[in-house]
């Protein structure tokens, strides 16, 4: 009886996998067509709605392909792949907008990076912790790995987003060229050191913690999906890149409609960057939530903190190089309200990762901080 039930479950899972693989192949290609058709076009309201639907489909497809790649290469390489892929495309979008000029682009890099830190460290972490604790009670993870990642995020954020307010070489919250160069090199060195630690020297710190009970471990083994082949993984990686490019470009395509809506509502223009950051980071948020539901809280932390690290560690060096061609000022220093939110986020995050296990209360804390960030971005 058990063998028959297991065979039926495996057959159902195989059929569902084939269906997901089919739509996950079609949607990125459809999104790529939408990118070509809408490139440089001013869309009508109906067009913005259709592009938005395709964008959401591309996000879901990106999550599927990221999970296929992650299952093939294993942790922590899977979460690292998604974080770096999203961030590289995000950096390309920031540079494109900044090089196009305009008075609103002086603080674009700062606003986007800070939004990414708040979204990942509060929104993604909070949602994952809440879902994981509701599903599994007291999810466990490696405090060594999560703590190391959080330390790098805190250092990078302070060096690049807080210190410009206190330097005196240039007036205002800006770095001088030499200071910007130092921040860029420091960001790259820290990020490279973390990746080496995560993938080589102390990889075990970043692997999911096995469930403590035998029944939970047995259920996890029963839910195990066969490892995809190299061909399937490479195909998924290519489609992942296509889907992520489509997400970023389509987000930029509908940004005029977002800007118009923000202006009509009387919300500060900087909130547009928050909305775009939310769209770009949606694949990581969904992957993190799914990992938490599967009792893989460490993977959720790898995704969240890895994305925050990559956002700073890759954006600042790219901006430093691009500053050679940028004619206007480059505002990096955060405002006083943002600094308070950043400090509070880091303090709460330390208390979250120290015990090596999380509860619903910690998830609620991070989500309240995320709500505070959104509220103050709308109503500063």
Automatic annotation (TrEMBL):
It comes from the Bacteria. This is Calcium:proton antiporter. Pfam families: Na_Ca_ex (PF01699). Its main location: membrane. It is found in: Membrane. Residues 46-199, 236-378 form the Sodium/calcium exchanger membrane region domain. It comes from Lysobacter korlensis. It is a multi-pass membrane protein. The chain crosses the membrane at residues 21-40, 46-65, 77-101, 113-134, 146-166, 178-197, 233-254, 260-282, 303-326, 332-354, 361-378. The keyword Transmembrane applies. Keywords: Membrane, Transmembrane, Transmembrane helix.
């Amino acid at each position: 009886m058990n063998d028959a039930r297991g065979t039926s479950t495996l057959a159902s899972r195989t059929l569902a996998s084939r269906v997901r693989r089919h739509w996950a192949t079609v949607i990125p290609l459809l999104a790529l067509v939408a990118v070509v058709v809408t490139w440089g076009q001013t869309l009508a309201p109906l067009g913005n709605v259709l592009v938005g639907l395709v964008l959401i489909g591309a996000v879901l497809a990106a999550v599927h392909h990221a999970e296929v790649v992650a299952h093939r290469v294993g942790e922590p390489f899977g979460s690292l792949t998604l974080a770096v892929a999203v961030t590289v495309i995000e950096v390309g979008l920031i540079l494109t907008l900044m090089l196009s000029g305009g008075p609103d682009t002086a603080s674009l890099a700062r606003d986007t990076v800070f939004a990414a830190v708040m979204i990942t460290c509060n929104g993604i972490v909070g949602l994952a912790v809440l879902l994981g604790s509701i599903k599994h009670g007291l999810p466990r993870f490696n405090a060594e790995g999560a703590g190391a990642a959080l330390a790098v995020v805190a250092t990078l954020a302070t060096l690049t987003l807080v210190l410009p307010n206190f330097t005196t070489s240039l007036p205002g919250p800006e770095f001088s060229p030499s200071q910007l160069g130092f921040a860029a090199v420091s960001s790259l060195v820290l990020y490279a050191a973390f990746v080496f630690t995560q993938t080589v020297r102390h990889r075990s710190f970043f692997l999911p913690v096995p469930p403590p009970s035998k029944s939970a471990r047995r259920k996890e083994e029963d839910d195990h999906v066969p490892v995809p082949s190299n061909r399937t993984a490479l195909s998924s990686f290519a489609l992942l890149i296509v889907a992520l490019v489509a997400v970023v470009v389509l987000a930029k395509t509908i940004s005029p409609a977002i800007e118009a809506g923000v202006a009509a509502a009387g919300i500060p223009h900087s909130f547009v960057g928050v909305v775009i950051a939310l769209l770009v980071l949606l694949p990581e948020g969904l992957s993190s939530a799914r990992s938490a539901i599967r009792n893989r809280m460490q993977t959720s932390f790898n995704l969240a903190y890895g994305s925050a690290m990559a956002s700073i560690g890759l954006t600042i060096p790219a901006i430093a190089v691009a500053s050679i061609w940028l004619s206007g000022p480059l505002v990096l220093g955060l405002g006083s309200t943002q600094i308070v939110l950043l400090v509070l986020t880091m303090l709460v995050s330390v208390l979250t990762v120290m015990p090596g296990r999380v509860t619903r209360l910690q998830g609620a804390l991070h989500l309240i901080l995320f709500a505070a960030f959104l509220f103050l971005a709308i109503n500063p």
